[in-house]
Design brief:
The chain is of the alpha+beta class. Helices cover 28% and strands 24% of the residues. Belongs to the phenylalanyl-tRNA synthetase beta subunit family. Type 1 subfamily.
């Protein structure tokens, strides 16, 4: 018969790959004063069954590591407040005695201002640690049916909320309205797949993982979302769009020891999509989604910040994305995320027939929005002019838009690209960009001059 501290035993058997009844019991706690009674009872049973002569009892005790007897103060006023009923002190005394809880009434300076008990729980009731535990025991013995049923009342005050804060729920609703589904995946992921998706950050390894495919903490949400996407595709889903918001975890490289302060936690919004652009229908096309479908959905989320022009999506490279279909997302020159097509080598290892598009962005960047400002509408008509510009293939529409915006005055209200042409009549190394420019003035009608 023995006693071991639960905190010293917890997890030790699993670390050796063992699962024993002793570990199961000692991890959950046993009576730390019952060893002598247990060995005497076991000896008594052996003598009755098989006979023999008992030997001496050998006791080894480490007094420093034995639990201390807990003395808990129980207030009558607290019982009434928590249970909502006044229970007489005689009934409380009776209940404590029936439970085997040693108790005495606390008397300070021989004057009792409030009925307070000092209660010591027996050693086999190691679950009794605070006053609320004692009140729970009293309510259980007193009878839950005898407790009054009352609707709790409390005064609530509205907490201040800044108009410049964009809630995550609003972002979720925006994506759901565009046909996406929210997923919730584990923060523990497979080290092999994550190593393919993120080669720049060192993952945090778990000391005691549940399984080999949950051995590290995620540095990117793409790892869990790709597993969920594969799960859905294997069940004949031909249109999958999943997004998730959550924390990603990383650490500085070459750490000799790791503490909570060394872990960097970043909240991100990520999504994966593949399959048909529209649900199967006699009137819908069978085209699959492409880069610009995902880019449009992401831009609708960025527009919630109130300053969509602050975000710039430009061609860039990422180790997990296709070199020709990947882009970085920047805000005022700071990189905040990536979007693109999954790298063909990773795509081939996953054995998926549809192209997979992904995006990931830091949510702290978009949850702070600017307030909309009112400007009166012009009483004068708008003027639209469409122009076509032939440029080199290397020149992007973003460069052309920036050039026009820098040269135009305040009368330019809208600038949109509505066509890109490559083909007959144009040099193979050039392309034609068609843009629509809308002008208006607040004080006069615009003319061709």
């Amino acid at each position: 018969s023995a006693f071991f501290s639960p905190t010293a035993i917890a997890g030790r058997a699993r670390s050796y790959g063992m699962s024993t009844d002793a570990a199961h019991r000692f991890e959950r706690g046993v009576d730390w004063q019952g060893q002598a009674r247990a060995i005497e009872r076991a000896t008594e049973l052996l003598l009755k069954i098989s006979g023999g002569e008992p030997g001496p009892t050998v006791v080894t005790i480490d007094e420093a590591n034995l639990p201390a007897m807990k003395v808990i103060e129980l207030r009558a006023s607290r019982i009434s407040l928590v249970l909502g009923v006044d229970i007489s002190t005689d009934i409380v005394d009776e209940i404590l005695n029936r439970l085997g809880f040693a108790n005495r009434v606390l008397d300070q300076n021989n004057e009792i201002t409030e009925h307070i008990w000092e209660v010591s729980a027996p050693s086999h009731r190691f679950d009794i640690a605070i006053e609320a535990d004692l009140i729970e025991e009293i309510s259980r013995v007193y009878g839950y049916n005898n407790l009054p049923v009352r609707t709790p009342r409390a005064s609530l005050s509205m907490l201040p909320r800044s108009e410049t804060d964009l809630s995550l729920n609003r972002i979720r609703h925006q994506l759901v309205s565009r046909g996406w589904f929210e997923a919730i995946t584990y923060s523990f992921v497979d080290a092999g797949l994550q190593g393919q998706l993120d080669t720049t950050q060192e993952p945090i390894e778990l000391a005691n993982p549940l399984s080999s495919d949950m051995s590290v903490m995620r540095t990117t949400i793409w790892t869990g979302l790709l597993n969920s996407l594969i799960y859905n595709l294997n069940r004949q889903q031909d249109q999958v769009r999943l997004f998730e918001t959550g924390l990603c975890f990383s650490q500085a490289p070459n750490q000799s020891s790791l503490t909570f302060d060394d872990i960097d936690q970043v909240r991100k919004l990520a999504g994966v999509a593949c399959g048909r652009r529209e649900s199967e229908n006699w009137v819908n096309s069978s085209e699959v989604i492409d880069f610009f479908d995902i880019k449009g959905d992401l831009e609708s989320v960025l527009a919630l910040s109130g300053e969509p022009e602050a975000f710039v999506i430009s061609a860039d490279k990422h180790p997990a994305l296709h070199p020709g279909q990947s882009a970085s997302i920047e805000k005022y020159g700071e990189n905040v995320g990536f979007i693109g097509l999954l790298d063909p080598r990773i795509h081939q290892s996953l054995d998926i027939r549809y192209p997979i598009f992904l995006f990931e962005i830091k949510t702290d960047i978009i949850i702070s929005k600017s307030l909309a400002e009112h400007t009166p509408m012009s009483r004068f008509p708008e003027v639209r002019r469409d122009i076509a510009i032939i440029v080199d293939q290397k020149i992007t529409a973003k460069d052309v838009r920036s050039c026009i915006n820098s040269a135009a005055d305040d009368s330019l209200q809208n600038l949109k690209l509505f066509d890109v042409y490559r083909g007959k009549g144009i040099d193979p190394n050039r392309k034609s960009l068609a843009l629509g420019l809308t002008f208006t003035h607040s004080s006069r009608t615009l003319t061709d001059d």
